[in-house]
Amino acid sequence: MIGKTKSRHVIRVLDPHVANKIAAGEVVERPASVVKELVENALDAHATRVEVHVERGGARLVRVVDDGSGIAREDLPLAFLPHATSKLSDVDDLESIATLGFRGEALASIGAVSQARIVSRERAAEAGFEIADEGGVLSEVRAAAAAPGTDVTIRNLFFNTPARARFLRSARTELGHIEDLLRCFALAFPEVGFRLVHDGEERLRAAPGEDRRSRLRALYGRELEGRLLAVRENGVEAYLGPPSVTRPNARDLHFFVNGRYVRDRILLRVVKDAYRDAMHGGRYPVAFLFLEVDPATIDVNVHPAKAEIRWRDPQWLHAAVAPLLARALRGADLSVSDAGGGSGGHAGGQPGDREEGVRRAMADFMRRAAEGHGPRVYEGEAPEGPRQGVAQGASPPEPPLLGVFQAHDSWLVCEVEDGIAIVDQHALHERVQYDRILKRLSEGGVDAQRLLVPEEVELGAADCALLEESKDLLARCGIAFSPFGDRSVAVETLPAVVPRARAADLLRDLVDLLRARGGAVDPRTLFHDVADTMACKAAVRFGDRLSREEVMALLRESGALDRAFVCPHGRPTVWRIPFAELRRRFGRT
Amino acid sequence: MRITVNRARFFEVTTLVGQAVASKSTKKVFECLRLTAKGGTLEVAGTDLEVAIRYRLAEDIEVKQEGEAVVPAALLANVLREVGDERITLAVAKQKLGLETDGGFFEIECVDPAEYPEIPGFPAAEAWQVEATDLQDLVRKTAFAAGKEAARFVLNGVRVLAEGGALRFIATDGRRLATLARPVKRRNGAEGKPVSAIVGVKGLHHFERLAAAAGGEVEFAVADRFVAVRTPSAEVVARVMEGVFPEHDQIIPKDCPNEAKLPVGMFASKLRQARQFASLETQSVALRFHAGELAIAAAGGEGRADVRLGIEYGGSEEKIGFNPGFLLDALKVVEGENVTFAFKNASGAAKLLDDGGFVYVVMPVLLE
């Protein structure tokens, strides 16, 4: 009896079929993962065209046809063997992976849970060969008619793992994942042609030999593409959406590192930081970021799906990439403008409402001015003599501010060089005050309020160590603490500027910041909420009548007409209507 | 139920008790008062489950038929405010309260009295006698120092401690602490066991209001789950908070060699002057003690202030930073013309004492 029990618990090496099925669970999650692996193989084989045919969301069929280098007859049986790969030969190669695939797992995993068939012909060869893998059972290699390249057909995915098959979503959802994926590949490899056909219908087509800009236009539409700000410097290629176009999540942030599409928290943080001055913290921009880095500085071998990477030096991203993006954004005119016409305004605003509001304000102004008791019209100081857009002669460095009036004690309507700008006086002043308060807080030291009894905060050993490393930085923010056991700290002082600060909340926020930014924390972010409240109280309100001097001071100090901001709550402060738009509205095109 | 009652008096009581009732609740019954007519009196009760108030109207009232009703507090008070009659008649039938006045009739939809939360009775056996003015002082001089949204929940309450013939209140938000004790006695003259509980500030303010209205002596009791105050016509019951409160004896500094005597009005005035310049970067002012003089300095983005006042001081020369708000809070409640300010050095706790036994501990701000 004892023997029997023992035999049930003996440790055995798993049958390769079982092992491959288990591995398949990590690599092959859904049809899109199959497409990903196969397209990566095609790209690694230097294909110039990749066609993907899918039936019923990929559950019934995924077929990837490329015109790449093909697989030699003698290599075909190896394709479905686990850890058989043409891309890696010894462990040193792992240090600098230059191909998309490298683990030698994918085809074996896919073959284990589907009915797979590979037909391939090397470019120089006269004929092609085929091999099939039916749930892990390999066929003989046979001769087959084929064009140069490789044609992989995967039928009935998960036919032998019903548990996994049940988790497949609707065909439409699965197709959506595949489309997203191919769009990413198409962006990463603009020189390669891509085509996606689903149940006989073409869903995506990208011609070979394009550049990135035309790819963006083809894949995301002319309107968005036209508003993207391009940055190309130092191995960084980025296309940044205007801050007025925001998203509630990070889905429209696309990161590519050495041609590999990745989801990466550090890059996310870098991009959000770059937009910090121009976008509310809770929203996400639209951006495409392509980085070319030395393969030795990243580790892509984190997870079988290879969607995550590890950076040897994340600090580099903060030090080099973030300022590059921020500089580009600052240099651009990012005010809310309807020049491109149409959608994508700030989430909370209805462009239609705004237009209507301005139209009414202008009409109202004209009428009241005609009646002789209109709102005060402020003559700008810049131009002398006839108004011809730009001041003549030795023009002052001041922005060419021509005329301004305050409408309904709430909006400042300004003549600017290229049209009209409308300013939300409260939002803009709030922003000015906010920046001033944060500057003062970061310049002066922050006093530390001592606590009667040290407040114990439990954080866990790793976070305590992280805080300990940043002790000096915290002291500058008015936070002093000492270790309290391994997992807790005892907080002795808190920043006096936040009168009701809770030690636990502050420290947890700090730990998050420290972790996300690798030690390069701007202590000011801690005081965002305080500055926000103070700024709101200190700003002129909507409905406050402003004198001419006040209006001029606000516009000049903020530089609002040169660059645009959002207020600390993320609303835009300036709306610019260029001449082109005005002409269009009045039918003067 | 059918009663006739003096309108002005009924309105007053409805408003008073209505303060304990939630103004907005997902459950209608929590926005209601319970009216109980029994034995020639009308009891008006209200609760938000944290605090409960019961008030007995015994004068200028005629109970024709006993009974009870649960009525929306705000609506009842608003109607009573607007009608001008001297006396009105209330009648309850089929969960509707009818209000008969000379100029009209109102019918208010009621809630089933069975749904009304139970309100604990006053635990007379546990009661202590305390002067109403003392109870008012206890609340007024401590509750302000309680936390507003402290992470340690109990710090949002005030600890009440009855022992050795004294009732002590202690409140702290982790940065300062206020405490005061006043004499109490058991009705039978016995000393009684020491009792302690933590009560929310809201309940204490009801105690204060009740004591102010009653005058004389009131009863104060600490039971297991609640603390209560009783006057001849009303009771307030406040639920206690569970948790461990910091030991005030260990927090109040004993070693304070430097002692100054400060004129209250002048000190407060100078602090207010200086604080104008401590608005933002620091929210703190620096107190520099010399022989015979206190200098208060503050500096910020808007400018700086340096103000002085003559004091009695013979200690060493010291400079300490404080949040001026913490000091001003205490100066508002102290008794007498002078306070004693005692401390050791720039990083240790300081204490402020008045002539009436009030002790206030305040932690310094470590100046940059």
Radius of gyration of chain A: 30 Å
* First-to-last CA distance of chain B: 70 Å
> What about the largest sheet of chain A?
9 strands, mixed
Pick out the low-confidence regions of chain B.
none
Descriptive notes:
The complex is a heterodimer of chains A (589) and B (368). With 589 residues, chain A is an alpha+beta fold. Chain A is built from 19 helices and 25 strands. In chain A, strands 1, 2, 3, 4, 5, 6, 7, 8 and 9 form a nine-stranded mixed beta sheet that branches. A six-stranded mixed beta sheet of chain A has the order 17-25-21-20-19-18. Chain A has a five-stranded mixed beta sheet with strand order 10-11-14-12-13. In chain A, strand 23 (480-484) and strand 24 (488-495) form a beta hairpin. The longest helix of chain A is centred in the middle third of the chain and has 21 residues, at 351-371. Chain A is globular. Chain B is α+β, with helices and mostly antiparallel strands. Chain B has helices at residues 7-18, 73-82, 132-142, 201-214, 248-251, 264-275, 324-331, and strands spanning 2-6, 32-38, 41-47, 51-57, 61-65, 67-72, 87-93, 96-101, 104-109, 127-131, 157-163, 166-172, 176-183, 185-186, 195-200, 217-222, 226-230, 234-241, 258-263, 285-290, 293-300, 303-310, 312-313, 318-322, 338-343, 350-353, 359-362, 365-366. In chain B, helix 1 (7-18) runs antiparallel to helix 2 and helix 6 packs antiparallel against helix 7. Classes of the chains: A alpha+beta (589), B alpha+beta (368). The interface between A and B is medium-sized, with 25 and 31 residues.
Summarize the structure.
The complex is a heterodimer of chains A (589) and B (368). Chain A is α+β, with helices and mostly antiparallel strands and 589 residues long.
